[in-house]
Design goal:
The chain has about 260 residues and is an alpha+beta fold. It has two domains: about 150 residues, S-adenosyl-l-methionine hydroxide adenosyltransferase, N-terminal (Rossmann fold, 3-Layer(aba) Sandwich); about 100 residues, Elongation Factor Tu (Ef-tu), domain 3 (Beta Barrel), CATH 2.40.30.90. About 15% of the residues lie in helices and about 30% in strands. The protein has five helices and 16 strands. Strands 8, 9, 10, 11, 12, 13, 14, 15 and 16 form a nine-stranded mixed sheet that branches. Strands 2-1-3-5-4-6-7 form a seven-stranded mixed sheet, sandwiched between helices. Helix 1 packs parallel to helix 4. The longest helix has 14 residues. The protein is elongated and about 70 Å long.
Length: about 260
């Protein structure tokens, strides 16, 4: 059940230099003037689908149930990849079937539908701007109360990317940097639950050529410019530099290994 005042969030790699974000908002507002539009991010690196997936995973379910999340990071625009609408946990997601909704399925099962509604698909559709011509109208239809199944036909399985899961044994934990935020913090796929052993035995964290000997609570637990390991807001291990960019200062980028090695007595 959608809220009386519908909410549509927008997540894209469009930036603010061009008219793309404004055009999508114009389409939505022309069809649903009372909608509340929320910009999540338009600064995702161009064509970085998994960065979009990460941001959706960590932000979408903080919004009220009934929120519609319009996500467009779409390097395959104009190809045979499907435009889809997805429902899960009382939230709605609209965008390309290219993996951007990959990380939602860890919460619950998804109900997905290919967008085929005549009011959308029989209009003139640009081969380069489905955000304006397909996804924005579909999001507006949902905001106006249209049941999601009326947008098109069911999709049995959506396209998914999967990050490798961290590996844990008696020797330690092997993980990877899966995201770098705007501050240059290295966000890993190592959840705090796997780090429980670090409370009971000595360990070292290896990232690039840097070795870290402890996990602290806040950035200010170390001096300015010092490297620190902590549990970030997403509940995973992060490598940071107090008042600096860990990615730049350590020359470490997305996909780099991060190892937690237990020290034998």
């Amino acid at each position: 059940m959608l809220r009386h005042t519908p909410i549509i969030t927008l997540t894209t790699d469009f930036g603010y230099r061009d008219y793309y974000v404004s055009a999508m908002k114009a389409v939505i507002l022309s069809k649903c003037p009372e909608v509340r539009l929320v910009d999540v991010s338009h600064d995702i690196l161009p064509q970085d689908i998994m960065a979009g997936a990460w941001i959706l995973r960590n932000s979408a379910f903080l919004y009220p149930k009934g929120t519609i999340h319009l996500a467009v990071v779409d390097p395959g625009v104009g190809t045979k990849r499907k435009p889809i609408a997805v429902e899960t946990k009382g939230h709605y997601f609209v965008g390309p079937d290219n993996g951007i909704f990959s990380l939602l399925s860890s919460y619950t099962e998804l109900n997905a539908f290919e967008i085929l509604h005549d009011d959308i698909m029989k209009q003139t559709i640009s081969s380069t701007f489905h955000g304006r011509d397909i996804f924005a109208p579909a999001a507006a239809m949902l905001a106006n109360g249209m049941p999601i199944h009326e947008l098109g036909k069911p999709v049995e399985e959506i396209n998914s990317y999967r990050w490798a899961s961290p590996i844990s044994d008696d020797e330690g934990i092997q993980g990877w940097v899966v995201h770098i935020d705007t501050y240059g913090n290295l966000i890993t796929n190592i959840p705090k639950e796997l780090l429980e052993k670090c409370k009971s035995q000595p360990f070292k964290i290896y990232v690039g050529t840097t070795i870290i000997n402890s996990i602290v609570s806040t950035f200010s637990d170390v001096t300015d410019g010092e490297t620190v390991a902590l549990i970030g807001s997403a509940g995973t291990l992060e490598i940071c530099v107090n008042k600096g960019s860990a990615s730049e200062m350590l020359s470490v980028y997305k996909g780099a290994p991060v190892s937690v090695v237990f020290q034998k007595a």
